[in-house]
Amino acid sequence: MDALERGHWFLKRKQVVTATDIAAICGLSPYRSAFDVWLDKTRDDIPPDSTNAAMTWGNRLEPVVAAAYTEQYGIKVAKAEFIRKDFDGVPAGCTQDYVSEDGQINVEVKTARSGYAWGDPGSDQIPDYYLTQVTWQMGIAGQRMTHLAVLIGASDFRIYNVPFDQTFFDSLLDRARQFWKLVLSKTPPQTDGSVACREYFSHLYRKGNKNLIQNPSQVLCSNAVKFFKLQKAAKFIEAKKEELTNVIISEVGEFGGVKIDGIGKLSIVRSAGRESVSYKGIVEALKIHVPSAIMETIVAANTKTGEPTSSVRTYPEKE
């Protein structure tokens, strides 16, 4: 997908609540938050491409997984087109991976690193993130069944049968309807811990001052007290973690780790010292041998101003 195609793709999805959007809006996405979705719908520019290696390989393996599905179930599939449908104040849209030739079955193909949260093959026990997506897709496309084919760990192929649940779909519509009102009014959703949320408020209040609020609200006081306590607890936990790290390394000795039944395993990661380059030293050496005007040009050409950021620092009162 080139830049022009991606621009058209983003603008088309910007106008609707998609299957991946609804999972994030409901807090079920491991990759995005409701704040991410809200920013995508209200921003004027096209965000940078965030495709990673896992997504790239997932896309490349789609035809392979789809072929395995057809081989096992004997159902031929076709690539699906983008669908848009309005539901009383909710502009909804989706692009299914595949559909059966008669259009009655939503066929989704996935890859996964592990079988965590996946039930027995043939059941409807799939991760909530995917259950939300396929329910949204079926509701828009008017289908009653999803076959989700997944390749787990590059060797474990499974197919799940997920029937349409109208009650669940209606609840998703309610969540989407409330969210879309925020989009139309450009009112931020509830503050969360996402990077998108931090960046939004950092940019919004980038011209802040150093004046202190003299009469803070009860809510702000309560949150500030919680922050002080959490930071103190985090420091204690980090210190105990470092202590236990040393204790475990000493107890494991030359072994590679330890396995605790019912809990998991601890592995000792050993690495040799790595060489590091002192770029600061290189720059200082160049200053001696390169004329200042040329150095200033080089520095200017390689200097970028990043997005504004905000953080919270604590200054506890002395007891």
Which tags fit this structure?
single chain, 319 residues, alpha+beta, Lambda Exonuclease, Chain A, five-stranded mixed sheet
Report on this model:
The protein is α+β, with helices and mostly antiparallel strands. Among the domains are: 3-185, Lambda Exonuclease, Chain A; 222-253. Helix content is 47%, strand content 14%. It has ten helices and nine strands. It has helices spanning 3-14, 19-25, 34-42, 53-73, 128-141, 166-185, 195-204, 218-252, 279-289, 292-301; strands spanning 77-79, 83-86, 91-94, 98-100, 105-112, 145-152, 156-163, 257-260, 264-267. The strands form three sheets. The protein has a five-stranded mixed β-sheet, sandwiched between helices. β4 (98-100) and β5 form a beta hairpin. α2 (19-25) packs across α5 and α5 (128-141) crosses α6 (166-185). 19% of the residues are buried. The mean pLDDT is 90.
SSE string, helix = H, strand = E?
Answer: HHHHEEEEEHEEHHHEEHH
Judging by the overall fold, what is the CATH architecture of one domain? Alpha-Beta Complex
Whole-number mean pLDDT: 90
Number of DSSP strand runs: 9
Radius of gyration: 26 Å
Q: What is the strand arrangement across the widest sheet?
A: 1-4-5-6-7
Main beta-sheet strand count, sense and barrel state: 5 strands, mixed
User: Approximately what portion of the residues adopt beta-strand conformation?
Assistant: 5-15%
Helix content: 40-55%
Structural class: alpha+beta
How many helices in DSSP terms?
Answer: 10
Residue runs with pLDDT of under 50 for 5 or more positions: none
